[in-house]
Fold this sequence. Notes:
- The chain is α/β, with parallel strands linked by helices.
- It has a nine-stranded mixed beta sheet, sandwiched between helices.
- The two termini are 36 Å apart.
- The protein is 32% helix and 17% strand.
Amino acid sequence: MNTPFAPNTLYYGDCFDIMSGFPDGYIDLICLDPPFNSNEKYNKVFKDSGLHIDPQIKAFDDVWLWDNTSAERVERVKNAVANPASKVIAGFEGFIPRSKMLSYTSYMAERLFMMHRILKDTGSIYLHCDPYASHYLKLVMDAIFGEKNFRNEIVWHYTGGGRSKTYFSRKHDIILWYVRNVTSDYQFNIDEMRVPYKPTSGYARVGIVSQSGKRYTPHPKGTPVDDVWDIPIINPMSDERLGYPTQKPLALYERIIKASSNPGDLVLDPFAGCGTTIEAAKKNGRDVIGIDILPFALRLINRYRLAPNGITPLPIEGVPVDMDTARQLAKAAPFKFQDWTISLIDGLASNPQKVGDDGIDGLCTP
Ligand SMILES: C[S@@+](CC[C@H](N)C(=O)[O-])C[C@H]1O[C@@H](n2cnc3c(N)ncnc32)[C@H](O)[C@@H]1O
């Protein structure tokens, strides 16, 4: 499939297919928050959320199985010699054969390689993951982007939720930042990344004189933030909360966007979800492309992210706009047609079992 490349567009589909139609070296910043290998049953979370979004819940189960598709994908990645992660995946196969992690990392290896191709020489990529997968993904990223292009492992620390009695409570995610080319003039807007000095800091009062007598004067915007970011999660009472189970705080993605892009730059989120990146980018004058495999997520972005902020809704590519295009989709991709039609009816969820029924069924959800 060859998808037209158009900034300020939302695309419905697998990001691998969509990105394959994009030209080389066009994107300034990629922020991705892919489904983790976390064993979360998001369909259940959607059902339980009870919030004000339509419960069109056939989304994605963040559960990675080992099945024939995984086995074929691992073979494909291992044989893709142009992809530097092929050797990493071959190594993982020896270490964790036929596992969910191998399934997940091979899926990511194909997509991250595509992202490397479409990123500008001066571009950056921020990969959001969790401590279960971050060490595996770092090896994949080192292979594809190059160890020398690694900039930071950002710890996003939050509080809230339950506390464990048998281990230290797990309260952080990992965000891996790589640049495309560390010797290029890549973006790092340090003055946008300053936070007020702590009251205990000498800088906070008068500045500091070092032992050699050199005086350091405080910066009016404070000190540059380090690689541990304390940003609250979206709690159940938060105004920001849309009810999308994996929604991330706007402040987290605004920080990434301000750090590594400038107004007018093009930001891509290939796993857009309910559009945290899209809102953060548009509010800060960036162009955007968002991709999601769920048509209803893309509609949420226009309805709850952009319209309330007075931002013109973005065109959604890949969903039918009239009878002709609906017929074309039904013929070309029956299950995509199924997902799309069912997502238009409140209270219905597309049947996750994709069997040979020509894509004309749905599940009634309570
Ligand atoms: C963890 S969520 C992203 C949440 C997002 N950061 C936010 O704040 O709303 C991952 C998203 O990736 C989407 N997704 C899963 N597989 C995909 C694929 N192959 N291509 C595009 N989107 C995909 C899911 O539908 C889900 O919305």
